[in-house]
Amino acid sequence: MSEPDENAEAREIEAQIGAFFERVLDKVDAHPRYGVAVRRAIEEGRELVLNYHTHGPQHGWCVSICAAGTGVPLLGLEAPLDELAHIRGIAREESHCDPLMAIFAERLIRRFTLTAPPRVYLNGAPRV
């Protein structure tokens, strides 16, 4: 009997997180630099990347909306990411990366009608 309640609770939490990311995207859109940078990258057909990262052990987790670098990679390394928008205080734990970034990616796809989902990076490296 508790399973339907757990599913309903999980759906409610996911809806709340989705609404949070909608507000984040509203703020990104309204930002004088971030909104322009994200839209320009999308118009140019650049691949988007969500870089879930921390600034140290005493800090929470942030996410940057980035565009895949356009430079020529050296020695087989990927070109650096171009940070388009930086959002602080997304989460407290590394383990929240996958579920949160899945919801954020879905909201980005919907908002900007992306043809491909953003890739997810953890601390600047592709998520394995």
Account of the 3D structure:
- Helix 1 (2-30) crosses helix 2 (34-43).
- The chain has helices at residues 2-30, 34-43, 97-112, and strands at residues 48-54, 61-67, 82-91, 119-122, 125-126.
- The radius of gyration is 16 Å and the shape is globular.
- The mean pLDDT is 90.
- It has one domain (2-126).
- The protein starts with a helix and ends with a strand.
- By secondary structure, the protein is α+β, with helices and mostly antiparallel strands.
- It has a five-stranded mixed sheet.
Structure, briefly:
A hairpin with a 2-residue loop joins strand 4 and strand 5. The chain is an alpha+beta fold. It starts with a helix and ends with a strand.
Could you give the order of the helices and strands?
Answer: HHEEEHEE
Strand order of the largest sheet: 3-2-1-4-5
Instruction: List the domain count as a whole number.
Output: 1
Poorly predicted runs? none
Structural class: alpha+beta
Cα Rg: 16 Å
Mean pLDDT: 90
Distance between the termini: 36 Å
Looking at the structure, what is the overall shape?
A: globular
Q: What percent of residues adopt helix (DSSP H or I)? A: 40-55%
Q: Major beta sheet, specifics? A: 5 strands, mixed
Total beta strand runs: 5
